[in-house]
Amino acid sequence: MSTLKVNSIEANTGSEIDINSTLGTIPSIIISGVTTVAAGSAAAPSITPTGDSNTGIFFPSADTIAIAEGGTEALRIDSSGRVTMPYQPSFFAYATGNDTTVADATIIVFGATSHNVGSHYSTSTGRFTAPVTGVYAFHAQIWAKNGAGYSRAIFRAAGALVTQNGFHPNTVGNNNDHSFQMSMVRQVSAGDAVDVMTNLGPLTFYGGGAQSHSYFCGYLIG
Q1: What is the number of other CB atoms lying within 10 angstroms of the CB of residue 168?
Q2: 53-111 per-position pLDDT tens digit
Q3: For the CA atoms of the chain, what is the radius of gyration?
């Protein structure tokens, strides 16, 4: 093993010191004191591996450590020990306006979002597309206005029916104004879409806007 013992190292020119270029490969460097590095950023972390300058560790503020992957913050630990993942895929989409009727076997498009981390939910298609393979949680509520007909909807993943939800009118006292909820936890592959589709006839529902009478939300668990 090579050993390097010096009191200080100073660069003659420029801002970098390349020990390997003059002394050959050094298997390890042992530092007994304090090593100080720049704070860095998500785009340019201060501690990175060779050949991947936008992935590594940086320090966004005092008493806070963060990890970046591909120039994007992926994990943060603050001084209280809390671990947050600000870029974890997550969305809350909701319908706007008054009563809307959607034909059978049609994706329900929730046209507005209160948050949409990563923009993986589309307000034009009504689909959430998984950015990575993992286990996701999804929930939806439909404020249905159907009278004598069925009020039913389904979760689909990668185009396949996953759950059936809703009610039959002869089991509900007030057929014209009611809601039903849908929830599931499911393994989803990267690139697969999850959506909410009408089932067994047209569905009339109330939007309500920011009061979120009808909505669709989800997030990556891990």
Answers
A1: 12
A2: 999 999 988 988 988 888 888 778 888 877 777 789 999 999 999 899 999 999 999 99
A3: 26
The position carrying tokens 């990175």 is 48
Instruction: Name the β-bridge partners of 135.
Output: 187
Structure-block tokens of residue 30: 């042992």
Mention every residue, 6+ apart, whose C-beta is less than 8 A from residue 85.
74, 75, 76
Rounded CA separation 99/183 (Å): 23
Q: Count H helices and E strands in the chain, helices first.
A: 1, 15
Domains of the chain: 37-86 (no CATH), 90-220 (2.60.120.40)
Which residues share a beta bridge with 58?
66
pLDDT of residue 171: 55
Read off the tokens for 81.
């020990």
CA dihedral sign of residues 105, 191, 76, 46: negative
- Residue 22 main-chain phi, psi, to 5 deg: -110, -25
- Whole-number Å distance between alpha carbons of 109 and 121: 10
Amino acid at 178: H
What is the distance between the alpha carbons of residues 195 and 136, in angstroms, rounded to a whole number? 13
* Cα-Cα-Cα-Cα dihedral sign, residues 9, 14, 15, 20: negative
Q: How far apart are the first and last CA of the chain?
A: 42
Quote the Cα angle for 49-50-55, to 5°: 40
